[in-house]
Amino acid sequence: MIRAIFFDLGKVLVDFDWNTAAEHISRKSELKITEIIYRCTASDIAIAFECGQLDSKEFLEKLKLSLRFRGTNNELHSLWTEIFTPIHNNIELLYRLKPHYTLGLISNTNTLHFDYICNTYDFTKEFDKLILSYEVGAMKPARQIFEKAIVGMSLHSEEIIFIDDIAKNLVGATDLGWQTIHYTGHDALIKNLQIFNVIILK
Predict the structure, then answer these.
(1) What is the CATH number of domain 4-15+85-195?
(2) Superfamily name with CATH number, domain 18-81
(3) pLDDT tens-digit series, residues 29-88
(4) Which residues 6+ apart lie within 8 Å of 6 measured at CB?
């Protein structure tokens, strides 16, 4: 019987658009949009930030230099954070699951993005556990982040579902014996939850 459901954040509960941010950044940088997106999302600086190895001020200063951005740190901060839109039907699903299940969030994220999401949307209050890469010092699919999620919880591994849109991020959870769902869309998610006999309020 399922007792706990852990969600990924990006592309499951909130969508994000780096193209628009990169386009705005490119107006004050000579870098191409594709290079801007890479430096914002996959560079050593970005990964270090998501692993909690840089604070927000250090990160923005390093990113500004990396992007050769001619604007202010405050401008870069806004462009970096204002990329999200809520995925309403999945957020509504949280409220429908909450009465019967422990809910958790496991996300590769950073303090700027997560602070923005918490200050903009209310749904993060529904989670009983928040497991964030910058706090743990590790990123999915590392086992460490999933082991952290169940500290202090009296759960058997087969009683937990983890939902993520990136298949490789499910590996750490699968290795621990969790049930997993590769997220491909809301309707498919509902069907997969029903396979596990999850109770979803109307």
Answers:
(1) 3.40.50.1000
(2) Putative phosphatase; domain 2 (1.10.150.240)
(3) 999 999 999 999 999 999 999 999 999 999 999 999 999 999 999 999 999 999 999 999
(4) 103, 104, 105, 106, 129, 131, 149, 160, 161, 162, 163, 173
